[in-house]
Amino acid sequence: MTDNSIHPSTQGIPRRHILKAGIGLGITGLGGCLGGSGGNGGTSMLTIGASSDGSASYASMQALQRSLSNHSDSVNFSVTAPGGDPESIRAYDNDELDGYTAGNFIFKQAVDKGEPFSGQAVENFPYLGFSYLSLHMHWLAVEGVNVNSIEEAVEKDLNIWVGPPGWGLRTLCVNIMEEAGLGDIKNTVDVSAEDVASQIDEGRIDVFFAYGTNGRSLPSWMVEVDSRASVHALKMSDDYVTAIKNSEAGFAEVEPYGYKQDIGMDQYQAWTDDYNTYFSPDVPAKAVKEVLQTTHKHWKEARESDSNYMDHSDPKSLTEYYHTNTPVHPGAADFLKENNAWNDSWKRGE
User: Fold this and answer.
1) What percent of the chain has a predicted confidence (pLDDT) above 90?
2) Fold of 135-273
3) How many CB atoms lie within 10 A of CB 260?
4) How far is it, in rounded angstroms, from Cα 262 to Cα 157?
5) Strand 44-49 vs strand 75-80: parallel, antiparallel, or unpaired?
């Protein structure tokens, strides 16, 4: 379990912040939800927002969708790519999703009304489902770019990719850079992750951040970069490391994994973010319980579709990145209790 509190109140999120009140919405507040109820023995088709095409989150949920199709008669996913975690959170707030995936950093930003939510606060927050992802972000420079640190890259006004505008990881990256005194990036490259390789080919990106997934490999967009471009890892100054440690991110020194090439370091410095799935209180408990049972029993099959899929053989691994003060979906709570993985300090959703 992640040792940080997402919500400021130790009593959990007030129910009015979880279930939007409104005429005609009643207690559920999800009249516009796309998912089926499954309440009469049918299949619950849950529409899940999972970042963007090519992302680690999207790959994980697509893999789980296939396992649900193969092994469950009562629940399945329709996985969508809203364009990033912030867009998933907003789509859910607009009753367009039954759940979503999100990093702990951007979820906290939504709760605290931080960027990119300061101008339009989020009203609806779902319940915790299960943990599925941990990322190790690190800086890389393209071959021929003569810099050894991210500080040098900013000082030389190089073309820097800090993630697509819609990603929560971009907000995290920019926040850390500003805290480290590197917020004045002259040449930010705004392209999707899937376009990074081609932009490097065309000489439009000099420096960018990459990430490893679950200690196993790289996301699909980085696999393409690794096959097409020579790169080397960049160092971080002490001020940069301190900025990471002062942020909501974690810090780690990581032995490179997933690369086909030598990136020039035995260990790179990384900032980390952990991810959970979330489900609407309106999704039946039995449907969410079935989702957790499926990923627990069939994670190896899911890994055949996504080689980075998290090992869920231990039921406790499904709670590895839980954070405090966010209620756990009743279906997830039922699964965890039945598998001796429940912690009495967690709050069960109503």
Assistant:
1) 82
2) D-Maltodextrin-Binding Protein; domain 2 (3.40.190)
3) 8
4) 26
5) parallel
